[in-house]
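Lab notes, practical 5.
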Amino acid sequence: MVKLFFLLSGENPTLPTSEAKAILETEGYSYETVGLMDQVLRLEASIESVKAVPVRAAFTRLCALELFVSEANYTDISKAVEATDFKSVLKAGESFVVRINRIKNYADQTINTMDLEVKLGRQMLNQTPEAKVNLKQPDKTFIGIITDEKLIFGLKLTEISSKTFSERRPRKKPFFHPSAMPSKLARCMINLAHAKTEGTMLDPFCGTGSSLIEATYVGCYALGVDAAKRMVVGCRKNLRFFNINAEGLVLADARKLPFFKVDCIVTDPPYGRSASTLKSTTKELVHDVLTTAYDLLSEGHRICIASPKTLNISAIGISIGFKHVESHFAYVHSTLTREVAVFEKKRQENKI
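Output from the prediction step:
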């Protein structure tokens, strides 16, 4: 176990943290939470666990091996650098660069990030004189994050680009619908549902196919259902555009699904003016879908479902028998805030 830190997206206050932890849980890695700063999650975990993050994460920007944490002022930072053994991570002949990022306006503005990069680089060279600085193509990058009046500093292990998600945003797809879920949120929900590689993920309201596309990219078998023929046809068009073959794409009522078991469910039921709710109120539809989902899932398996915050979906899921794991809230516009809820089918206690 080593100390790691994850630089998180600031797009939502709670989803990035839960997603990063869910990825490690899904991949079977144990961890201990060390601390949470603004856009930085600190964990103790195996260094191998980092490999799963760039493949799956939507809201993590980079992962690093933590070397020190200090108060965000020149004096304390300098003392922390002196107390750190850089020879253990920077070998003779290796080149390196130091990069400092500031979250929002944390720390004394007299700290200039470029100046701090130079100071840290010089101190590190004093400890490792056989290393060298290379600003363009270094062997290793050391990253510092100024947040919550602290500097957290470490060796960058991996960086995650958000470019692929922007290329799959709703309006980039050949078939568009105003209710379509952003690709980042769809990927995050898949992670929160603990969707495993080669497991079966079902979306009973697949719409334009965002969840099916993102599930396939993390190695899942994806099943999509929609009650509107137009949506099924459009979804198939989007899947073909991204060269994706879903395990199944079915025209059916989400309350009467033609399946017996799936490994997890990720869905965003229709609500609002632009979507059909199958002649039911949104509350009735969500209740019926959660009831159907309960029978499809095995004990310990999850559904991640979005709904309007006003619906109080957590109470609905609990009333059906699910364990409510967590909820997150994502602002859409002035009249809609999504609640992204995660439910788990309770494990039955062994009876003596």
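Observations recorded by the TA: The mean pLDDT is 93. The two ends are 37 Å apart (CA to CA).
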